[in-house]
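I am writing to request your help with a piece of structural work I have in hand. A protein sequence and the structure tokens that stand for its backbone fold form the material at issue. Please examine both parts with care and let me know of anything in them that strikes you as inconsistent. The record follows directly beneath this note.
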Amino acid sequence: MKISPRYILPNLFTAGSIFLGVMAIFMAHKGLVQADSKAFTTACWYILFSMVLDGLDGRVARLTNTASKFGVEFDSLADIVAFGVAPAVLLYFYVGHDYGRYGVAISGLFVVLGAIRLARFNITTNVETNSFIGLPIPSAAAIVCLWIIVVEHQKVSFFGWIEFLRTNTYVFLIFAFFIAILMVSNIRYPSFKKVQWNLKYFIVLLIALAFVIAQPSLALCVLLSAYIIYGVIRWIFIVLFRITMKKKDIEEIKGDNGERKE
């Protein structure tokens, strides 16, 4: 199969994303064997940089007019390696191996549900929308990595929460299980693809960037955690609103039936 040289560039970004995911697995294994916390955080950063490359490949393809079905399939395979297998192996080597079959089950489930998330996205996405159905797999991988980095190297106590995570590592497995479920849920998350930028959004972006420059890992962890929590809270309010409206409709129907009988 002949490939035009123009198509190489975006696929190089995708290949780089896979390579960083594999490097993250190697570094996580080094962290386990040598009990080296720096190796674990390096593995986390590899996955986060892989996320950057994953975001660039599609944009480069659109800018160079080299989008193709091959690129779409290649990108999907890259995602399952970099954001499914790599963070799951990292999670297992970091804390999962201490909890036997529970660690194996949750780490494996993270990969399987991530693959389901990608498959559902591939067959349901025809046009760009303002939201994702379910938490995107790159975001799921990123939040697991960011929490590991913060717990390992953040000196701020946050009312003892970080110290609690350091001494109760099983919380990471519970957290990863919750994140995995969010990937295949029907909770909607903003995609920011069609945001109408104005001065207000620009100022908010500048403040966020300043926060990131001052405390990169902590800022990214807080922002992404807020993004995930926002989706859950919004879903809860929508469900409660629908239940309330349904009860009102039932009461109105009963009231109308009572009036007719009289």
